[in-house]
Each structure stands twice: as C-alpha cells, then as structure tokens.
Amino acid sequence: MSAKACPETVEHSVQLKFFSAVFYAGSSFLITVVNKTVLTSFRFPSYMCLGIGQMITTLVVLYAAKTSKAIQFQDFDRTVLLKMFPLPLLYVGNHITGLASTKKLSLPMFTVLRKFTILMTMILEVYILRKTFSKRLVYSVAAIVLGAMVAASSDLAFDVEGYTFILLNDAFTAASSVYTKKKLGTEGLGKYGVLFYNALIIIIPTLMASAFTGDLHKAVAYEDWVKATFIMCFLVSCFMGFVLMYSIVLCSYYNSALTTTVVGAIKNVAVAYIGIFVGGDYLFSWANFLGLSICMSGGLAYSYFTFNTTSSRSSTAGEKELKIHITEDSTGKY
C-alpha cells in the first residue's frame, strides 16, 4: 500500500515545486521593476529606508495572520536567536546591497551580474548541504556564468561602486538561500517563523544604521512624499518585499537552494529584454545581447533538466526511486 501511495505523493510534490517556482519568478520580476521605478524614476534617495518599509510590512502581515490563527509559528524566546543565526545578518546584507545595486546599475546589467549568484550557491550547497550535481546541471550553470561574463564585458556604463554592490549582493543571496534551506527544517520555526524573525531581529539595527549614515534624514526630507503616484509605488514596493521573501522561502522549501536561484535568473530574461526598451539607461551592444541570450539558454536548460528529471521520477514506482524519495524526506533536504 505504501508503494502505491508514494507516486501520488511525488506527483503532488512536483506540482508544488513547479508552481512555487513560478510564484517566485513572478514576484521577483514585479519587485525589480517596482524598486527600479521608486529608486530611479522617482529618484528616491534612500534604498535602506525602502528596505525598512518592506521589513515593517512583513512583520505587520505575519503578526496579523498569527493573531488571527491563520498561521502558526513559535513565540519569541532566547532560543530563536540561536535557531536563526546567521540568517538575519545574511538577510540584511542581501537586502541592502540588492537595493543599492538596483539604484546604481542599469536594469539589464543588474540582471546579468546577478547570474554569479548561481555559481556561488552551487559551491555553498556542495560544502554546507553536502549536495552533488550532475554534469548536465554543472554545464548549464557554466553557460549562465559565461553568458554573464560576455554581457558584462560590453558594459559601457561601468560603475565600480555599482559592480561592488552587485557582487556583494550575489554572495549574500547565495549564502542566504543555502541557510534558508537549512533553517526551514528547524523545529518550531517553519516558513513563517523564518520570515517573521528575520525581519524582527534586523529591523532595529537597520533603522539605527539608516539614522547614523544620514540615509533616514534624506528619506524624510524627500520632496515627492506629497505625490500620490510615488506613495502608491512606495507602498507597492513595501508589500512586494513581503511577497518576494515569502515566495523565496516557499520555493526553497519545495526545491533546492540552487533551483530557487536559477529560477530567479530565468525570470530575468523578461526583465533584461524589457529593460532594453524601457528605462532609457541601457546602452545596446551585440556582445551584451549575445551574453544575455547565453545566460537565458543555460537557465532554461537547467530548469528542463531539473523538472524533467523530477517528473520522470514521479511517474516511476521502482524500488530505486522509492528509496531516494524516502531518504530525501527523512533528511529534510527536499
């Protein structure tokens, strides 16, 4: 009876993996466009305060849901800090460097240089989660990184500060993805606890840093607070910050950290090509366009190999596949 039920469980798992990946891709696309609008089109001077707004929104939404019994997670105590470390530090680093690089770089170059997150995530998964990858997946990742290097080599709007921020953002994102996957199996936290306590732990230090650096003063003195269009975009960005973090945790819960990172890269095909025609800060070159295409081809190949292999396993009730599935569930890696 257990052998008969297992394929159904695996098939259901494949659906969750796919739709959680699509949800993350859509959320990531939308928040990139909204953040770019707030920071560049409206010239909002404080990417740190925008991040604080997104953290506050996360806390409010999750606390309201917990109070209404819609969701459950552990109440705060001293053990929460130990369970969460070092995820909050990685989260704030990822958040701040991501917003800073969004402001400094053109939209297509931002999406191209984000591809290096994939290589970093693969390396961290090997060393931290002890995972192994097939040659096809390794070659797919290599193609994505190669395309990123080709595209970046033609960037005529080179910005040292912007490139520094984006590479730091890649490192923080990779580490955050891997540790998020690891922390999701921690007793008492779960998806919602990881989200809530991430925001709760780091919001006060981030607010203090914003005030100390003068970033908060710039945000308060910003003159477009009276414009309804800016306020609407700012609020949408704050809400989408929560949606994005939830989609990342959800995708990481049902997939590997590397798959979550690659899905984020795939959605960039739409962002990159739209950015060529929208925004006005993209300098076209054939090398850059070729690099973008190589990146996307590698990303699509990775997705095909990953989901096609998973789908093939779900249609087979053989003893080998059954053992692999049970092992993955019992270790909490998948």
Automatic annotation (TrEMBL):
GO terms for cellular component: membrane. It is a multi-pass membrane protein. It is found in: Membrane. Its main location: membrane. Keywords: Membrane, Transmembrane, Transmembrane helix. Pfam families: TPT (PF03151). The chain crosses the membrane at residues 21-38, 44-65, 80-100, 112-130, 137-157, 163-180, 192-213, 225-250, 257-278, 284-305. Residues 16-303 form the Sugar phosphate transporter domain. This is Solute carrier family 35 member D2. It comes from Dicentrarchus labrax (European seabass). The lineage of its organism: Eukaryota, Metazoa, Chordata, Craniata, Vertebrata.
